[in-house]
């Protein structure tokens, strides 16, 4: 069983976003969604729905960002 950084995706009301991704990144998102679905014994999630939890996880685990935020060096209006 793979040790993925994301758990099952919450069944939240989807929000429409528009973003351009490199084709290789999109393929990776599709593959990640398929593996995540298998791990959760569910159908593969829409790869676009992975973006928010991945960004949230990235920000939560970015020590440099956390340090800068604690030091008060984040841009105005970012909270």
Written account of the structure:
By secondary structure, this protein is mostly helical. The chain has a domain at 23-66. Helices cover 46% and strands 0% of the residues. The chain is built from 3 helices and no strands. It is globular, with a radius of gyration of 15 Å. The mean pLDDT is 84.
Quick summary of this structure?
The protein has 79 residues and is mainly alpha-helical. 46% of the residues lie in helices and 0% in strands.
String of helices and strands: HHH
Poorly predicted segments: none
Distance between the first and last residues' Cα:
37 Å
Report the biggest beta sheet as strand number plus sense, adding barrel if it closes: none
Number of strands: 0
Number of helices: 3
Query: What structural class do the secondary elements suggest?
Result: mainly alpha
Cα-atom radius of gyration: 15 Å
Helical residue percent band = 40-55%
Mean pLDDT: 84
- Label the overall shape: globular
The proportion of residues in beta strands is under 5%
């Amino acid at each position: 069983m793979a040790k993925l950084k994301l758990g099952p995706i919450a069944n939240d009301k989807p929000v429409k976003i528009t973003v351009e991704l490199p084709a290789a990144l999109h393929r990776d998102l599709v593959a990640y969604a398929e593996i995540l679905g298998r791990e959760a014994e569910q159908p593969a999630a829409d790869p676009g729905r992975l973006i928010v939890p991945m960004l949230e996880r990235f920000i939560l685990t970015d020590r440099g960002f956390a340090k800068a935020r604690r030091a008060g060096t984040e841009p105005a209006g970012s909270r």
